[in-house]
Amino acid sequence: MHIKPFIMENWFKKYRPFVKYNLADSGVRDLTIKQIFELCGKDVAALNDIKLEYKDSRGSEELRKAITQTYISVNPENILVTTSTSEALFIFLNEVLSPGDTVILEFPAFQSLYEVPRALGCNVKFLKLKYEEGYLPNISRLKELIDTRTKLIVINNPHNPTGSMLRSEELSKIWEIAESCGAYLLADEHYRFLPLDGTETVSSMVDLNNKIIGTGSITKCFGMIGLRMGWLIGPSKLLQQCQIFKDYLTHVLSPISDFIATMVIKNREVILKKNIQMIKKNVTVFESFISRHNDILSWVPPKGGAVCFPKYNLDISSDRFCECLIDQEDVFLLPGSCFEKEGFFRVCLGVENKLFTEAIERMDKYLRRQK
């Protein structure tokens, strides 16, 4: 397999270690081990009794049972725990795709969702999400992209980088299209624990039909990127095949990550409530910032997740726009070029409120100088 460089990772490697105001990441602010245990009401000394041994590479039974509690119709045998959602995606795509298959996915998108299929010899078609349509997929355009070799349709909900979110009736229509052409439907749902519209949890596509494939994670929504815990959901027969592929990658999961993930999912409400409150406060701050600079900036307010994808009106590339903010204000945003979309940038809304407000004040100063 020959695959292109991961564009955004080059930016992260270059700037993440040095900037004061990192608004380029895509998750909620990182927690310490101590903070996690305190939020869950547990004693951190429990880590002392964990053996660093081989564990069930599917994920422990207790963890998979805990994950099922976040869905309506998922059983433990329908879950394969992985070392991050990225691994879950990589395993599934390699298992089901063949050269010449057509893959349809929303655009802009997380780069691995289309570069891995391309590296496997697939024909990738983009269902373009338009700013003027609220970054929501157009069902008619999706139907037009279907061909006789369509093997997979990928939906990311809530969506990265735009923060858009589909309603259950829209999800049902997409499933009907996939089923009618015999294609797999993959629902990448790593943000589903962060609805910003007042609902408790984003509806999962896998609860519509047990043939739908889903991915999930606690890392970005809970502020635990370093745990590297994700999962793949699907029919047990397919997961058995995915397990074979996984055995060549990571045939053991970290017992520490498994233990903490189980504990966190069982106590998810208290952590998620704090995180959603933090994001909503930042949304309010950013909305005010946009209104002050509406001659330069515009946006579609996010409905879920921890990111948004504003549009800017300056005669400058997105790379240069973000480089100037880093050089002049020590603020790190992710340029639209990382999603092959010029004139846009991604903002992380999952930053501590004080830090986020300070970063916006610095962006304020930069934009005033452009007028």
Automatic annotation (TrEMBL):
<dbReference type="Pfam" id="PF00155">
    <property type="entry name" value="Aminotran_1_2"/>
</dbReference>
<dbReference type="GO" id="GO:0030170">
    <property type="term" value="F:pyridoxal phosphate binding"/>
</dbReference>
<dbReference type="InterPro" id="IPR015421">
    <property type="entry name" value="PyrdxlP-dep_Trfase_major"/>
</dbReference>
<keyword id="KW-0032">Aminotransferase</keyword>
<dbReference type="InterPro" id="IPR015422">
    <property type="entry name" value="PyrdxlP-dep_Trfase_small"/>
</dbReference>
<feature type="domain" description="Aminotransferase class I/classII large">
    <location>
        <begin position="51"/>
        <end position="362"/>
    </location>
</feature>
<dbReference type="InterPro" id="IPR004839">
    <property type="entry name" value="Aminotransferase_I/II_large"/>
</dbReference>
<dbReference type="GO" id="GO:0008483">
    <property type="term" value="F:transaminase activity"/>
</dbReference>
<keyword id="KW-0808">Transferase</keyword>
<dbReference type="InterPro" id="IPR015424">
    <property type="entry name" value="PyrdxlP-dep_Trfase"/>
</dbReference>
<comment type="similarity">
    <text>Belongs to the class-I pyridoxal-phosphate-dependent aminotransferase family.</text>
</comment>
<protein>
    <recommendedName>
        <fullName>Aminotransferase</fullName>
        <ecNumber>2.6.1.-</ecNumber>
    </recommendedName>
</protein>
<dbReference type="InterPro" id="IPR004838">
    <property type="entry name" value="NHTrfase_class1_PyrdxlP-BS"/>
</dbReference>
